[in-house]
Specification:
The complex is a heterodimer of chains A (478) and B (170).
Chain A: H1 2-12, H2 15-33, H3 39-46, H4 55-80, H5 89-100, H6 104-128, H7 130-138, H8 142-158, H9 164-178, E1 181-182, E2 188-189, H10 202-221, H11 239-261, H12 266-281, H13 293-309, H14 311-317, H15 323-334, H16 341-346, H17 348-376, H18 384-403, H19 406-424, H20 436-448, H21 451-456, H22 466-474
Antiparallel strand pairs in A: 1-2
Chain B: H1 4-27, H2 43-64, H3 82-109, H4 111-126, H5 132-154
Helix pairs in contact in B: 1-2, 3-4, 4-5
Classes of the chains: A mainly alpha (478), B mainly alpha (170).
């Protein structure tokens, strides 16, 4: 085994691999920092390039893009109150208040360090815990998925500022948006236009709710800094601050690993779980939402903790956990590698190379993060009256490029107005639920044949997917 | 007295009440046959709307009793004169008109020209009129650069509009 590892290390440590990982991480950070551009888009765009690269180099490039974009989303969340992707929605809660206090640099550094630690622990878990985590992931059916998402929603309600009641209202609004579109019978809910039949995408809703209200507030009240540049401020993270957040970073990484290994849960729910738990257990819980470094640490360690873990079901079982790993599955197949148990038997050397490369990419992520923090920190010196309309343009072009649909742009603008009304009424804007939440919930009830039996006696202890096989006869979609 | 907390509760109740009593009966049709124990399609929207409506009414009740916790998203502002409020509302209305105008103009002028106009409107409404050079440069060059980037890198087909002011860039 050690000889294999040494050989794999030698094979990975080539200039081509290091360049591919470095370029992937840098590009991922930049793409993730642009609102509307997602890691999925970055990985999909890079897929054609992998035709011309050796197998391990191409997979490492895609993994690096994924990791970079997950971290990059925190940059715009902290500096311009706009999460680059849904997984950074929690980072806004404390990142933006810190930036307003002149501690944007500190917030960015905490995001970077916690992302790197989460990512590193996720890679370790991929190497040593792939088999048990893959078995755990196999046993999660619609009832467990529904319970996890419902728990994540209670977290959303509980972390919503000072009012639990308004948090529940916010969660209800998100759940209502998730019901729009096709249901499990093939009929349509709230299909007032032809485009609404396919439901509302998460990206325009989320970015509309977060990014556009700032522009409308600036236009209406004209009180944001009066054209003055926002100072980057103190950017050195002290050892005491890091030690104070270490517990949340470790816990967040663990939450990210477990939820990342379960197909369909994703980094966004993991970040909310971790943030809620950090807030519950922290001695500084009253500072959460007002600029608490521990909040950023909890959120960022969890979402980057998912990165390596999402590879677990892909590598161990050949099952992609989300869209990004679905694209990676394509890259594996293009290179003649078939993910699944046989991969460890037939291509052990490539697997070791991949593991070592992924560990190395965590170090590169730190370096790229340090470089880009300096670059992106200049954003905070741009006057708000110029920056905010620029963000609107980035959002509009980013959202349009995802689906080439004017409907999504319209949803973005409408949600911006809705978000502004919520802002004026002090109703917290958090996140909308995934449309698949309702589908899983319906399947759970359908499979259990009695709603409460599904909750009282979930199928977790029974063989994999018992409910799913029954439910799939009722429904194939949400 | 209709204070902010009361108004908030009222608007929440009105929104979810409208969804429950007006939108769901019309826009969430029930199929003629529902197999077994499967929940009907309107079950979840109704459940969420009832929950939202109840919370809206609760918020009103708390406001009437003098409660209603405030969240920290929005800072408290001092009182503004009637003229200031009129100007604020005019600026907001113009911003909303710019958003609506953008959606209407894209099929006519194309994505690029409409984006330039929207960007210009937003810069001016946000109060950047004193920086004419920066505003004009950003309003023209930013949409142009973004369209070139997305058109060439992601091959996004941007609508050129029926009036075709700008030729296709990608």
């Amino acid at each position: 085994m050690w000889n294999d590892l040494l050989f794999a290390f030698e094979s990975v440590a080539t200039l081509a691999n290091v360049l591919a990982m470095g370029a992937g991480i840098l590009a991922g950070v930049v793409i993730g920092a642009i609102p509307g551009m997602t890691g999925t888009m970055a990985v999909t765009l890079a897929l054609p390039f992998t035709f011309y690269l050796p197998p391990v180099t191409s997979i490492l490039l895609l993994v690096a893009l994924y990791k970079g974009s997950t971290y990059g989303a925190s940059i715009s969340a902290i500096l311009i109150k706009t999460p680059g992707t849904a997984s950074a929605a929690c980072t806004v809660l404390d990142g933006w208040p810190l930036a307003q206090k002149g501690k944007a640099g500190k917030a960015l550094n905490m995001a970077l360090i916690s992302s790197c630690i989460g990512d590193f622990l996720s890679n370790i878990s991929l190497i040593f815990l792939a088999a048990p985590l893959a078995l755990l992931a196999l046993r999660v059916g619609p009832p467990e998925y529904f319970m996890l998402m419902a728990f994540a929603l209670t977290m959303v309600a509980s972390i919503s500022g000072g009012s639990l009641l308004l948090g529940v209202v916010s969660a209800c609004f998100g759940l209502l948006l998730a019901t729009v579109g096709e249901d499990m019978y093939g009929s349509f809910r709230f299909a007032m236009t032809e485009d609404m039949k396919s439901g509302l995408s998460v990206a325009p809703v989320l970015i509309g709710l977060f990014a556009l209200p700032e522009l409308l507030r600036l236009i209406m009240f004209r009180e944001e800094n009066h054209g003055q540049a926002m100072k980057l401020g103190d950017n050195r993270l002290t050892l005491a601050e890091f030690r104070g957040s270490l517990k949340s970073i470790i816990r967040g990484s663990f939450i990210g690993v477990v939820l990342g290994a379960i197909p369909g849960i994703g980094p966004s729910a993991a970040a909310f779980f971790s943030y809620g738990e950090a807030r519950r257990s922290s001695p500084n819980s009253e500072n959460f939402g007002k600029g608490e470094l521990e909040g950023i640490a909890a959120s960022e360690s969890a979402n980057n903790g998912c990165c390596g873990a999402t590879m677990i079901p892909l590598l161990a079982l050949g099952v992609p956990g989300d869209v990004i790993t679905g694209v990676m599955l394509g890259a594996f197949m293009i290179q003649g590698l078939t993910p699944g148990p046989l991969l460890f038997q037939n291509n052990l050397n490539e697997v070791y190379m991949l593991f070592i490369g992924m560990m190395f990419s965590s170090v590169l992520l730190f370096g790229a993060g340090k470089l880009t923090v300096r670059f992106f920190s200049h954003i905070s010196s741009i006057p708000q009256v110029l920056l905010t309309p620029v963000v609107l343009m980035l959002c509009i072009y980013g959202i349009y490029s995802i689906s080439s649909s004017m409907f999504d742009v319209t949803v973005l603008l409408v949600m911006g107005v809705v978000g502004f009304i919520m802002l004026l009424l002090n109703i917290p804007r958090r996140r909308s639920s995934s449309p698949s939440f309702w589908g899983r919930c319906s399947r759970t009830i359908c499979a259990a044949r009695w709603p409460f039996r599904a909750v009282i006696r979930p199928s977790f202890s029974s063989p994999p997917f018992p409910g799913f096989s029954q439910a799939s006869s009722c429904s194939s979609s949400a | 007295m209709l204070n902010k907390a009361m108004l908030r509760g009222l608007l929440i109740a009105l929104f979810f009440g409208t969804v429950l009593f007006a939108l769901i009966p019309v826009h969430v049709p029930r199929p003629s046959f529902i197999p077994g124990f499967a929940p009907p399609p309107d079950m979840w929207p109704r459940t969420v709307s009832i929950l939202g409506l109840a919370h809206g009414l609760l918020a009103m009740a708390f406001a009437a009793l003098g409660g209603g916790n405030e969240t920290s998203d929005e800072p408290e502002r001092g009182p503004a004169s009637a003229v200031e409020w009129r100007n604020r509302l005019i600026r907001l209305a113009l911003a909303l008109a710019a958003f609506a105008g953008f959606v209407v103009l894209v099929p006519l002028l194309g994505f690029l020209a409409s984006s330039m106009l929207l960007a210009l409107a937003c810069f001016l409404l946000a109060g950047a009129s004193g920086r004419w050079v920066a505003v004009l440069a950003l309003a023209v060059l930013l949409p142009l650069g973004l369209q070139l980037f997305f058109g060439n890198v992601t091959h996004t087909p941007f609508p050129s509009g029926s009036w075709s002011i700008f030729p296709t860039l990608n």
